Amino acid sequence: MTPGARTQAAIDLVDVIAEAARSGGAAADTLIARWFATRRYAGSKDRRAVRELVYAAIRRAGEVPANGRSAMVALADDDAIVAASFDGSNYGPSPIVADEPRASAGVAPRWLEQALIDSGLAADALPALVGRAPLDLRVNTLKATRDELLAELPDAASIDATPDGVRLPTGTAVEALPAFNRGLVEVQDAGSQIVGLALPVAPGARIVDLCAGAGGKTLALAARMGGEGMLLACDTDRNRLQRLAPRATRAGAGNVETRLLNPGRELESLPDWIGTADGVLVDAPCSGTGTWRRNPEARWRLGPDRLDRFGATQAHVLDLGAALVRPGGDLVYIVCSLLDAEGSAQVDAFLTRYPGWTGAPLDLPAGRPRGRGWRLDPAADGTDGFFVARLTAPC
Predict the structure, then answer these.
(1) 341 beta partners
(2) Distances from the Cα of 307 to the Cαs of 288, 312, 392, in angstroms?
(3) % helix, strand, coil for the chain, step of 5
(4) Second label for 13, Cα 20 to 30 Å away, from 74, 184, 314, 337?
(5) Could you list the active site residues?
(6) What is the pLDDT of residues 71-86, one digit of tens each?
């Protein structure tokens, strides 16, 4: 593909991605994969170049752009190489007209930028939310030590703020690594590893991961438990939960059981766990404002109404978690969000609903206190953004 053809391809893809954001369609990665699946002529270098253009344009545009060309023209204003590709060549975009529309630059829609600032983030910290994320792995201590993994992967480096984290160069094909296929590592952001430490666990404990999804935090808990005890991974999404079993087998986590829950009737599937869990992890559905580095178009999908729906879901899963915790046990609440509405405000509301519960102090290896919890953010910590709180049931 010529430079012009690559730019035109990026324009077409941003058109598709922006429309999907407006209509609730598929995520950008899925749309890009589908687009290239029907264009076999595009080589690996072409695909990489087009993806980089697409994501650069998405990261620059705070609001959903009117169309892909306006987003790419705005990018060309900052990049002479991109500007030169608007040359009117075959398969390339027509030359830029001086006064044609440009997508506005920004970190997020203005209402959302203000909500983040109102939640205690400095304005100069916001651009880090849409920067490029590193490639972080967690060493599976059921099978290896970090030193052993570093010896096997010379390009890897320790992440000092995590006990088992390593970082690889961006673009490394992790699933092709023998260490991955032998279950020695899992892809997991350093921030996700750190907030998981908020839940105390020990071999032999009874632990529930209530919103387990595909099980990233479940497997980290299993490793900390030494593969001993009972670890129940639950979710209402069958497709996501089904991905956990083969991951647990590869990791050697034999103490993991999965259980599919019926939305709105979750406790009917958990009678044997009510009031008996030593700890419950609630990695709640949320806006994902802390993960825009990986999914920058997600900020185009979020509106006040959707944020309110997330809030209602978060309160619901916290109530479910509270029902499972034994007297004196712990409920850890995590969201990959930097908005107080999903973080500290949810914890305050929970403690109002459950006056006998207390917020336990946290001192994690990165981040800082926020309300009655703890928060990490990309600008200060170099991780995805997270809020976490540990809540202890009355004895």
Answers:
(1) none
(2) 10, 9, 27
(3) 45, 15, 40
(4) 337
(5) 336
(6) 999 999 999 999 999 9
CB neighbour list of residue 106: distance below 8 Å, 6 or more residues apart: 61, 62, 63, 113
Note the maximum CA span of the chain.
74
Helix (H, G, I), strand (E, B) or coil at 321: helix
Nearest Cα to Cα of residue 61 among 112, 109, 24:
109
pLDDT digits (tens, 9 = 90+) for 133-146: 999 999 999 999 99
CA angle 100, 102, 108 (to 5 degrees): 165
- Tokens at residue 148, please? 């052993």
Alpha helices in the chain (DSSP H): 3-23, 28-37, 44-60, 68-78, 80-84, 110-118, 146-152, 178-181, 190-196, 216-224, 238-242, 244-251, 304-324, 344-353, 378-381
Residue 98 pLDDT > 90: no
Q: Phi first, then psi: what are they for 147, rounded to 5°?
A: -60, -40
pTM of the model: 0.94
Closest C-alpha to 274, from 322, 232, 328: 322
pLDDT (0 to 100) of residue 44: 86
